[in-house]
Amino acid sequence: MSIPRATGVVVRTTEHAPANAKAGMNASSPTVVVLHDGNHPPAMTDVERLATVRYATEDTLAESLGGADVLFVWHFLSEAVSEAFSAADELRWIHVASAGVDRLLFDALRDSEVVVTNSRGIFDRPMAEYVLTTVLALAKDLHTSVRLQDHKRWQHRETERIEGKKALVVGTGPIGRAIATQLSAAGLSVVGAGRTSRAEDPDFGYVHASEALHEVVGEFDYVVLAAPLTESTRGMIDAEMLARFRPSARLINVGRGQLVVQEDLVEALVAGTIAGAALDVFDVEPLPEDSPLWEMDNVLVSPHMSGDTLGWTEELVALFTTNLAGYAADDRLRNVVDKHRGYVSGSESI
Questions:
Q1: Range 257-277 average pLDDT
Q2: Which intervals hold domain D-isomer specific 2-hydroxyacid dehydrogenase NAD-binding (predicted)?
Q3: Catalytic residue status for 285
Q4: Catalytic residue among 246, 304, 334, 341, which?
């Protein structure tokens, strides 16, 4: 990717710099604070050419924000921004290195003029491939084969076809659309669930309104959660909703763990209310060792990695760098989040 270069820029990078660190800088050069977890993001050379960069951890974030224009939330699991936000006296833009922004948004930020952008587009295809993989693994009982292989047991079984199975993708943003494309190509019949119902959608064919989810969820063999976490989606899959699933249905969650009431899901899996689940996200992460989900034969557990493929961190930095170059040139930012809805404006979701 070719990144525009800023000219005449003096670059200084520090772990945490005082608020007057911009003194002597080119007036057009922004100051960027990078919130990290102890590991700096890779491939930051272009960012450091475009701006003064201050690297900060959660402990040093507040003292680093004074006088900064931009905050790059590399440590996207952190909730430290809300505590340090009052120190951000010149902040204009926050970019988060994830698609979800639920951990970042808080009332003071929503009510401010600070623009929020996310990393939409990096994770779409990898997460769609993960979902297709889990559909195949569940249908072909691959997780059981691995367990049997560990014990050198030869146990013949019959498995299922996925061709002609019906899948509902909850969340019709870019990730949900990539999932629909992958599952459709594999032979499944796919529809979506989003904020409003509509026919003739280019990726889903038909989209059900999310408020009618309880009426239609029982029609599907696979229910895939790819929705952002908002007040309207939190706990959407609870005991009442799970009771409406087909007993042969599987739940796949690549959205957020809090979309599901985890205790209700465990009970449904034990009772056979649903046939199985593939879970990449959980209400508490890492998943505690005493969670019964670890021991369930009909559950696939992965550690929040469905979108993390080789080179993904470099892609995240490249996206931020492109946006930073636009910011420095007063161009329009990409992936601007509607801070009240919780996702990118113009991206239809649930």
A1: 98
A2: 133-306
A3: yes
A4: 304
